[in-house]
Each structure stands twice: as structure tokens, then as C-alpha cells.
Design a protein that fits this description.
By secondary structure, the protein is of the alpha/beta class. It has a single domain, classed as Alpha/Beta hydrolase fold, catalytic domain (Rossmann fold). The protein contains ten helices and twelve strands. It has helices at 24-32, 67-79, 97-108, 155-168, 187-199, 215-229, 260-265, 305-308, 325-337, 361-377; strands at residues 45-46, 52-53, 88-89, 94-95, 111-118, 121-128, 140-144, 172-175, 208-213, 237-241, 314-321, 342-351. The strands form three sheets. The chain has an eight-stranded mixed beta sheet with strand order 5-6-8-7-9-10-11-12, with helices on both faces. It has a two-stranded antiparallel ribbon with strand order 1-2. A hairpin with a 4-residue loop joins strand 3 (88-89) and strand 4 (94-95). The longest helix has 17 residues, at 361-377. The relative contact order is 0.13.
Length: 380
């Protein structure tokens, strides 16, 4: 990974050739056709079923990003092509490039951390150095870390908890919930409920906020459904970040599978469109959800108006290059339709989990809207 400070790097551009092509034929045409004499097949083609065949294109870094953001996006795309930088490091439960962000956050955002358990579940309990601020007395946030329900403890927990504890003055409890391959759904929901139930002995539900990124964002929505099924009160507010609450059948679903994934990760991971018919219910590609019905409202709360309508005020954060963008936008539209107070923030040019890096203005802006959201709704 490029270790030069982001502020000193020059913004780069990445040509994502053929990434937007929606068929093998389109990809082949892209690879073999001289650019100066494009054949008719280089045009956008709309098929009778509504499928759009998009020719190869170069997608530059967005002009709307800050200079630091442009350099960050470029570095991220290049990193995603380097297998060595993507190898899991046991110490942090995540790829090594995340360690750089952890170290930088530790420099910028001093916190105190206690390794403990709450309700019998292992947690990290973060507080600002000097204690919880006067404004946050009687409030607590619960963080549900990302990692595909398989990994990223403690890396993602640190990256999601430290900024809000330090900048917002909050107590933040990061939950080390059970994950695959050892455990399957609903193990994580059960663990979150145990921590939440124990904290309810000290905090009023309206003073508790729950949030998470990626799998943790999904788990935040799942937990709201689980709480309802087990007669637990709703918390004061939640944050579904880098995720949605829709059925996770083919990736995160929607247009973003074909567009944002390619230009945000430097990879093209379109789900198959010619799957054979089967009497078996569709399954998620996530090992944690492999035995669950992805249309079960306890997995995908958008499948139940009754459940979704009881959600507390919800903040959703994504980016135009986040592979979760469609699920996030869809979840927001469903909440609004049902009368739930919901805020959607979409960062132009940013990718999945972009705010882990604290040295770009876009991340600082994201921290600010998170903190403002919880300050506006907890205890209300």
C-alpha cells in the first residue's frame, strides 16, 4: 500500500475497462474492437426484457471529491488489486491496509478501552479520555462491526467506534457477536439482544443508539426485527451504514451489483442471471446466512411493513461507489413510505466503508452527521 500521506499524493485516475459490460459478448467486443472505429455493438443496447447492454467505458475519479478523497479512492482501487494487501492478519482480524487506518485513528482520537463482557457477550467498551461528556451522560451507543459476518474483529469495531467516542463524547460498546463459519443466523441477533437487554438495566431505551457498517449495518436492521419478535423496546435511534435491510440474495442487490461494485472495488461481480429453476428457496451467498430464508423479515426487515414501520429514527449512509448503495436507497424509500423518520446520506464518489480512513474530508463529514443524528434523537 502507498504509505505516502494522502495529502501529499496526487489524485489519480483509473480506467475500468469493460467493467460496466453486462454480458460476455459485450466484454469480448470491448476487448477486440479498436476505439477509433466503434461498431454498432459499442452503443447502449436495450433488450426486450429491459436488460441494458452497456459498452466498455473509462470511469474517472469524480470531480466532486476533495483532493484527498480523489487520492484515497485511487489508492483504494489499486489496493483492491493487490492480493498481498488483502490477506487477513490474525492480530486485527482484517486485511493489513486497515491497520494503517487504525493506527491513524489512535493518533487523532484518544479513547479509553475496556475489554469486558456485557450480558455474557464479549465487548470492547470505549469512552473518551477524561470520561463521557456532560451532553452524553445517560446515553450509550452500541456498535455492530462489519466483516461479512465472518471477520474484522477487532479492526472494524475499532474503526467504527473510536471516532464517535472521541469526537462525540459517547460511551460506545462494540459487540463481538458470533460469526460464521462456526455460527449461523440468528446467533448474532441473539448476542446483540443480550447486550441490549443488559444495558436496559442502566439506560432508558430512548437513550440507546445502535449502529454498524456493512454486515454490522445489516445486523442493526436485523436486531430491530429481533427485538420486536422478543418484546424488547425500540432504541432511540439507529444507523444502518454501508448496508441496507433488504433481502441479501444476490450480493446486496439492485443496480449497484453491476455499477457501483465495479467502479468502487475495481472488480466486476455481477450475480448470475441464468440460474436454473429450483424448488429450493434462494439463499444468501454469506455463509452466516446460508441456512436462513433471506426473505424472512428477521433477516430482511423490508419484507415486513409491520416490522419496518416500528423502526426508530434511522440514518442510512452509503456512497455512489458502494456496492450496498441500491439496498441502502431501497431501505430508505421503504422507511419513508411507512412514515418512519429516516435520513439518507450518499457520498459522491465514495465506496464501501469509506469513512474508516480519518484523513479525508468526506470521512470527517460522515462522523459529523453521525454524531449530529444521535445527538438529535437520543432522549427525545
Amino acid at each position: 500500500m502507498n504509505t505516502m500521506p494522502i495529502s501529499q499524493r496526487k489524485p489519480g485516475r483509473l480506467a475500468v475497462a469493460c467493467a460496466m459490460a453486462l454480458s460476455v459478448m459485450a466484454i469480448a467486443a470491448c476487448a477486440s474492437t479498436p476505439a477509433e472505429t466503434p461498431p454498432p455493438s459499442s452503443k447502449v443496447v436495450v433488450q426486450p426484457d429491459g436488460t441494458v447492454l452497456v459498452p466498455a467505458m473509462s470511469v474517472p475519479v469524480s470531480d466532486y471529491l476533495s483532493p484527498e478523497g480523489k487520492a484515497y479512492l485511487t489508492d483504494h482501487l489499486v489496493t483492491m488489486q493487490n492480493p498481498e494487501l488483502l490477506k487477513n492478519v490474525e492480530e486485527i482480524g482484517a486485511p493489513m491496509f486497515l491497520k494503517t487506518y487504525m493506527d491513524r485513528q489512535a493518533e487523532l482520537f484518544p479513547v479509553s478501552k475496556i475489554d469486558t463482557s456485557i450480558g455474557g457477550i464479549h465487548v470492547y467498551d470505549y469512552t473518551p479520555v477524561g470520561g463521557v461528556s456532560a451532553e452524553q451522560q445517560g446515553r450509550v451507543l452500541i456498535d455492530l462491526h462489519g466483516g461479512g459476518f465472518m471477520t474484522c474483529w477487532p479492526a472494524c469495531a475499532e474503526l467504527e467506534s473510536v471516532p464517535l467516542a472521541s469526537l462525540g463524547g459517547f460511551r460506545v460498546v462494540a459487540v463481538d457477536y458470533r460469526q460464521a463459519p462456526e455460527y449461523k443466523f440468528p446467533a448474532a441477533s441473539e448476542d446483540v439482544a443480550k447486550v441490549y437487554t443488559e444495558l436496559l438495566k442502566t439506560y432508558a431505551p430512548e437513550n440507546i443508539g445502535i449502529y454498524g457498517c456493512s454486515a454490522g449495518g445489516m445486523l442493526t436492521g436485523m436486531s430491530m426485527a429481533w427485538f420486536q419478535a422478543h418484546d424488547l423496546p425500540m432504541p432511540g435511534a439507529i444507523g444502518i451504514y454501508c448496508a441496507g435491510a433488504a433481502p441479501p440474495v444476490k450480493g446486496f442487490g439492485g443496480d449497484a451489483n453491476y455499477t457501483a461494485t465495479a467502479i468502487g472495488e475495481g472488480r466486476f461481480i455481477a450475480p448470475p442471471t441464468d440460474e436454473p429453476a429450483s424448488d429450493k428457496p434462494a439463499r444468501s451467498l454469506m455463509p452466516y446466512l446460508s441456512e436462513a430464508d433471506p426473505y424472512d423479515p428477521l433477516v430482511a426487515p423490508t419484507e415486513s411493513d409491520a416490522i419496518l414501520s416500528r423502526f426508530p429514527p434511522t440514518q442510512i449512509i452509503t456512497g455512489t461507489r458502494g456496492f450496498e448503495m441500491s439496498a441502502a436507497v431501497y431501505t430508505h424509500s421503504r422507511l419513508v413510505k411507512l412514515g418512519v423518520e429516516a435520513d439518507l446520506h450518499v457520498w459522491e464518489g465514495m465506496f464501501h466503508g469509506f469513512f474508516y480512513n480519518p484523513d479525508v474530508p468526506e470521512s470527517r463529514d460522515a462522523y459529523e452527521v453521525m454524531i449530529d443524528f444521535f445527538n438529535s434523537h437520543l432522549g427525545r
